[in-house]
Batch of 3 targets.
Target 1
Amino acid sequence: MSISNNFVIEMNHVSKDFKVLNRHEGLKGSLKDLFSRDYRILTAVNDISISINKGEIVGYLGPNGAGKSTTIKMMSGVLEPSRGEILVNGNVPYSNRTKNAENIGVVFGQRSQLWWALPLIESFKVLKDIYMIPDKEYNDITELYRSLVDIDPLLHKPVRQMSLGQRTLSDILAAFLHNPKIVFLDEPTIGLDVSMKAKIRDLIKGLNKEKHTTVILTTHDMGDVDALCQRIVIIDHGKMIYDNDMEHLKTYFGSYRTLRLNLKDVGWKEYLVDESKTDVMSIISDAQKYYTIRDIQLKEIETEEIIKKIYEGGTTA
């Protein structure tokens, strides 16, 4: 398998299977399970091929259980695929996990890579030693951090005293510290308020622009997708069902509008309307036969609705 100079990640017909025990109920069933060979094969990732360019921010999306985390673990070298090939920065990630780790950064959910009792600056110094970051590179990246976000109040604050948003921001800074070629971000803004979400999105965009770092983002927050991603990949039940840029997606759904009607004694009702097939005025006229309409809102379809439609099999765009 060859890799282009522009591709930092290539997956070629990659699948991952897990053996799952068919469990039995009750105490007798539990004892039986101890010696059981009654397994079934669960395919978590099913024949995925993808090439990701240097510097891209790619949204890797799908419902819970779709296979996103399994794919990320294979890309990061934690899991080995059952079939197919993966190259990350020209290397097989699971064959040499140490070398692969030198060129990637990872932020997984709420699992911090920082030292809980230490001030942030001490965690940075430990990571500097671990990754053998030269003094000049370390000073340059910390100055870049200062230009993107106000980190000085955090540097001498123990991680255990930080808010969730401050810890998430600090974890992202730590993931970029050794100038990795790829950073994997798993739900980076989950549980954060609107202000902190905006700050973290600006930070990710700034680091991507300055360092040309490839970012793979998994999220359920469509605000993250709209703000950060030039391209999205969607998987469901382990299979890839969409891979294209955001503009293509929105163009494909250009005839869709969201119609909201405020109906007396009912409240707001929402309709997803394909104007190539259904006239908006006909929906309003039908509603008027049964209700008094107090207000009408018509707006472009939101990314969240587009993704939902794709999950439901509404397109193979």
Target 2
Amino acid sequence: MSFLVEDKNYAFLSNLGIEKQNLGVYHTKWTGSGKTIKSICPANGKPIAEVVTGTLDDYETAVKATQAAWQIWADLPAPKRGEIVRQIGNALRDHKTDLGKLVSLEMGKILPEGEGEVQEYIDICDYAVGLSRMFEGKVIPSERPGHALLEMWNPLGAIGIITAFNFPVAVYGWNNALALVCGDTMVWKSAGTTPLTSIAVTKILSKVFEANNLPGSVCSLVCGDSTVGEAMAKDDRLRLISFTGSTNVGRRVALNVQERFGRSILELGGNNAIIVCENADLNMVVQSALFSCVGTAGQRCTSTRRIICHEKVYDQVLSSLKKAYSQVRIGDPLEPQTLCGPLHTENAINEYLSAIEEAKKLGGVIECGGKRINRDGYYVEPTIVTNLPHNSPIVHKETFAPIVYLLKCKSVDEAIQINNEVDQGLSSSMFTTNLGDVFKWLGPKGSDCGIVNVNIPTSGAEIGGAFGGEKHTGGGRESGSDSWKQYMRRSTCTINYSKELPLAQGIKFE
């Protein structure tokens, strides 16, 4: 892989190992024989760099190297693997400012969010270090005398990770840190529009492996097109594919992986709602909604797409939200005063404008926003839409942009039904001061999402809990809790330490 930085104003990239001439690092081979793509800065629409991508032949080389690296990596005791991950976390700390700036530059999210994404990777490294000394097994009582029944966990081997543009560091980090301490090696296909970020991350990891005399191919990277992703999904050598992206693509990935009896972790679409009960603290509602609707320009999978308000507070919520939206500072994501940066691509603007037009045709009222901002880059106005039925097709469609639909309900039960009626089931929030509402929301007839919040927004998950959703969101789980089990295989082990051979269930075969 090679690259060419075109703008000298981006000198900080050299701190991340991105130079005009790639000299490579020990144990790491950068190659590329595919097409050349441009990394575009969404803040101004101008190219940052050119990257020569990998072909299927390059992918084949990467997989073989990753398999070979597993023979070395799997021999390390889990706490030793945890020590390498600890060093990765420290290396990320050293580069947090520069890497966060690169995320903002290449993806478009504001600088605090760019650095926050790197911090998320650091946090999961810390979590994984502790996990490396805590993997649980079981000793299960055996019904046969002189027998021990055990449960053991071992690494899967080489796995594949396919990530999306909106979290070009954190989502890889969730998978990477846990998979490493579990004993897996990996091939990473990053998003085609954020190649520089993935290169920078891989260089940080490579230096850690180099310092420990380990092959950099423990964590291989392939920047390529959809043919590489398809090859990964069909590749028997990659026992697990973790895919983050759209539901439509995720469905094809799942089918290809399942056809070969592989495993998949799917983090797909979301159509997330905030329910506002009549007794809610409306100041908290407005602050939370502003962050989860407008943050990352509505390009989080957990961004709020729908606000379901009790009819008694609907007008007040609308009035307060419009006032808050009018104060949002839109601009260059690298400027400290900016609260909302650009959309990621020109195509995202087209989808935004298309959704606005469809909402209007269906009778929707644009309370604020609804336009592209006339300046360089991919900027749009954060938008509030009212006067649409909760089951309108456009309301049920996830548009990856800062558009929220304000809906009205008469009761908590109706609000929960509206929350659950969409295909996706990622994140959900209820704002209430009623304890009964809380436990109804958390209960079997409450939210059907993987993330169920109370008095906090739909976005902003902590790494300690498992992250993921239900239904068309894919059902996968990443990050905390017992998500580590997905990166390992389970063996039930029976040991006979007696001189007899009793059979289970008291069967006699003599």
Target 3
Amino acid sequence: MKKILHAAKYITEAGLEIEKVLMAETYSISNMYNQLRGDFTNESVSWKRLICNNKGCPKWIFIMYLALHERLSTKDRMSKWGIQVEQTCPLCEQELESHHHLFFSCKYSTDIWSKVLTWLGITRQVYSWEDEVEWATRNVTGKGAKA
């Protein structure tokens, strides 16, 4: 009984009137769920195809997910957490390591990305992180190894 009465709180917080819910002629769990959930049903990110239905190793997909949210443990983030680390990029040893620098601003990583693109038969220059994600979202289709 307590659980039922406690659920009434969520119904009123969602902006629904309990009387209307009780007097309804038909009841649908999915309809009630969508009403309680609110306006979150249409939210989507442009890069969801890069994560969902990806045939890659789960570890790779998780790392890509963290990178897309800029949540990788880069040296600049660790220093914000209070961890004492040398903040210089270990690849180029010239600039501070950050998410943006590590992937595409660093000369070493830019060279690697260029070689990977050439290996895949893609002839174009290396862009910034946001532009690469946008390009991959638009152009990566199919289920083959190249995708």
